[in-house]
């Protein structure tokens, strides 16, 4: 499906739930903002914290599972990284409430051994 926007010099291209942003990568951000206003409902702001660890997912899995149980209103992401000398996994913490996000972040820092925390 093609849809034209007066703010953009190219059409929005979609195939089912996939959006295609043609062109130079520097323009993607502007294009996404324009398309997002029209295509996605937004129910507020999300608050995100990131923690970078020098440990594998397997090494922290029990602690992450416990954290998920302790923080039911929070979304967690675990992203392994290959070929990076600085860290092995990135943990994301996200919710629609800033206090809830920060509390989950603090709990994560309590549960994860300090020696594997690279950056937070």
Detailed description of the structure:
- The chain has 120 residues and is α+β, with helices and mostly antiparallel strands.
- The chain has two domains: 2-39, no CATH class; 47-119, Alpha-Beta Plaits (2-Layer Sandwich).
- It has helices at residues 25-39, 57-70, 98-111, and strands spanning 2-3, 12-15, 18-20, 47-53, 75-80, 89-95, 117-119.
- The chain has a four-stranded antiparallel sheet. The protein has a three-stranded antiparallel sheet with strand order 1-2-3, with no helix packed on it.
- Helix 2 crosses helix 3.
- The longest helix is centred in the first third of the chain and has 15 residues, at 25-39.
- InterPro entries: FLAD1_M.
- This is FAD synthase middle domain-containing protein.
- It comes from Cryptolaemus montrouzieri.
Short description:
The protein is of the alpha+beta class.
Please outline the helices and strands.
Layout: E1 2-3, E2 12-15, E3 18-20, H1 25-39, E4 47-53, H2 57-70, E5 75-80, E6 89-95, H3 98-111, E7 117-119
Antiparallel strand pairs: 1-2, 2-3, 4-6, 4-7, 5-6
Helix pairs in contact: 2-3
Keywords, separated by commas or semicolons:
120 residues; 3 helices; FLAD1_M; FAD synthase middle domain-containing protein; globular; single chain; Alpha-Beta Plaits; alpha+beta; 27% strand
- Estimate the mean pLDDT confidence: 81
Q: What fraction strand?
A: 25-35%
**What is the N-to-C order of secondary-structure elements (H for helix, E for strand)?**
EEEHEHEEHE
Name the poorly predicted regions: none
Radius of gyration in whole Å, from Cα? 19 Å
Number of domains: 2
Give the count of helical stretches.
Answer: 3
Largest sheet: 4 strands, antiparallel
Which architecture of the largest domain would the CATH scheme give at its second level?
2-Layer Sandwich
CATH class of the largest domain: Alpha Beta
Overall 3D geometry? globular
Structural class: alpha+beta
Strand order of the largest sheet: 5-6-4-7
Report how far apart the termini are: 42 Å
Under CATH, the topology of the largest domain can be stated as Alpha-Beta Plaits
> How many beta-strand segments?
7
- The amount of helix comes to 25-40%
């Amino acid at each position: 499906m093609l849809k034209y926007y007066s703010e953009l010099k190219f059409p929005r291209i979609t195939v089912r739930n996939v959006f295609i942003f043609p062109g130079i990568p520097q323009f993607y951000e502007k294009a996404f903002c324009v398309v997002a206003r029209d295509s996605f409902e937004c129910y507020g702001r999300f608050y995100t914290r990131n923690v970078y660890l020098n440990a594998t997912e397997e090494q922290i899995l029990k602690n992450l599972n416990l954290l998920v149980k302790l923080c039911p209103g929070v979304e967690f992401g675990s992203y392994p990284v290959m070929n990076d000398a600085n860290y092995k996994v990135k943990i994301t913490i996200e919710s629609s409430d800033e206090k809830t996000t920060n509390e989950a972040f603090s709990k994560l820092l309590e549960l994860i051994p300090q020696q594997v925390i690279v950056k937070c």
